[in-house]
């Protein structure tokens, strides 16, 4: 350190590797997006960015680990709409809530898809709807735990169909996808990030997209929206954001936000995300105050959906 007159100059952050915690198992959409981002942040910060997976309880275990980590900028959380639903869903949340975090910016938005095992006796959504209606409890619906994007989307589909299916929870939709391809589970609402390669490879059957409008993406363009398939106003888009523990020093947050903004302008990263049906957010949304405001609005919006469904975690 150099004594800079008024005191010791802080060593330039970052001076050691950064951990990017993914609150779901490896192989899922959150993990895929995190590894893309980690590579781009490494280039900008010139330090290793280690991706660590900690699944469980719909992402709340991973979020809690970051909420209670030392606020030095070396432990970050990537998370999606589950970050905004946990405070309503979990009465015993292992952290205080969205104010336990510093906001580094939104990252992207991805539609979800309704996909099923190839051996299902339904070829399209109309046939699937009839098959489910025959006996909803025999339908095994995979998801990544209460509060995960897959579970919330599944909840909305069940409410819209007035059909309560059997839930099969996993630590992430990565492992869930393996069982769906193996045919040991029936259905899943999965983000395009993870679904597009499997639909393209013919490993799962796609029934619909959950976005308000049809997707332009070549693999998704032929899929109807759930809204046009008889579930009026159905619309689920999964957004991801980046967080640090609250009380992380301002200059550190500014450095991380600058690196995130740079990463999300990387044409290679944008191209790879768009190839999976993902849209990187505009620069104005990669801004802490806008990010926090968006999350607060999402907390309120999803609270209504959860309270209407009475779908609280135990
Ligand atoms: C994952 O990465 O496993 C997903 O984000 C889980 C989910 O939220 O459905």
TrEMBL record:
Which Pfam family is one of this chain's hits? TctC
Which SUPFAM superfamilies does UniProt cross-reference here? Periplasmic binding protein-like II
Gene3D superfamilies annotated for this entry?
A: Bordetella uptake gene, domain 1, Periplasmic binding protein-like II
Task: Tell me which PANTHER family the record gives.
Answer: BLR1237 PROTEIN (PTHR42928:SF5), TRICARBOXYLATE-BINDING PROTEIN (PTHR42928)
Q: Which family does this protein fall into? A: Belongs to the UPF0065 (bug) family.
Q: What is this protein called?
A: Tripartite tricarboxylate transporter substrate-binding protein
What species is given as this protein's source?
Roseateles violae
């Amino acid at each position: 350190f150099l004594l800079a007159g008024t005191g010791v100059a802080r060593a330039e952050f970052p001076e050691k590797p950064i951990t990017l915690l993914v609150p779901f198992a490896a192989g899922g959409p959150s993990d895929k997006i995190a590894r893309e981002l980690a590579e781009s942040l490494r280039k900008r910060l010139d330090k290793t960015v280690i991706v660590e997976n900690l699944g469980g309880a719909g992402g709340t275990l991973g979020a809690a680990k970051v909420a209670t980590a030392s606020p030095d900028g070396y432990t970050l959380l990537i998370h999606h709409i589950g970050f905004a639903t946990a405070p309503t869903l979990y009465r015993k949340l292992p952290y205080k809530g969205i104010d336990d975090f510093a906001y580094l910016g939104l990252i992207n938005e991805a539609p979800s898809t309704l996909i099923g095992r190839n051996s299902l006796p339904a070829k399209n959504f109309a046939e699937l709807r009839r098959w489910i209606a025959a006996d909803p409890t025999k339908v095994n619906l995979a998801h990544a735990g209460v509060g995960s994007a897959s579970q919330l989307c599944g909840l909305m589909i069940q409410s819209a169909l007035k059909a309560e299916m059997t839930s099969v929870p996993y630590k992430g939709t990565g492992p869930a996808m393996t069982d769906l391809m193996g045919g040991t589970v029936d259905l899943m609402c999965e983000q395009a990030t993870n679904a597009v390669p499997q639909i393209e490879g013919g490993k799962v059957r796609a029934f619909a997209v959950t976005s308000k409008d049809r997707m332009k993406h070549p693999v998704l363009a032929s899929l109807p929206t759930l809204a046009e398939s008889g579930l009026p106003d159905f619309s689920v888009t999964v957004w991801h954001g980046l967080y640090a523990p609250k009380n992380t020093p301002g200059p550190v947050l500014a450095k991380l936000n600058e690196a995130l903004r740079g990463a999300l302008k990387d044409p290679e990263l944008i191209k790879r995300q768009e190839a999976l049906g993902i849209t990187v957010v505009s620069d104005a949304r990669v801004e802490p105050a806008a990010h926090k405001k968006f999350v607060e609005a999402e907390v309120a919006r999803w609270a209504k959906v959860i309270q209407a469904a009475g779908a609280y975690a135990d």
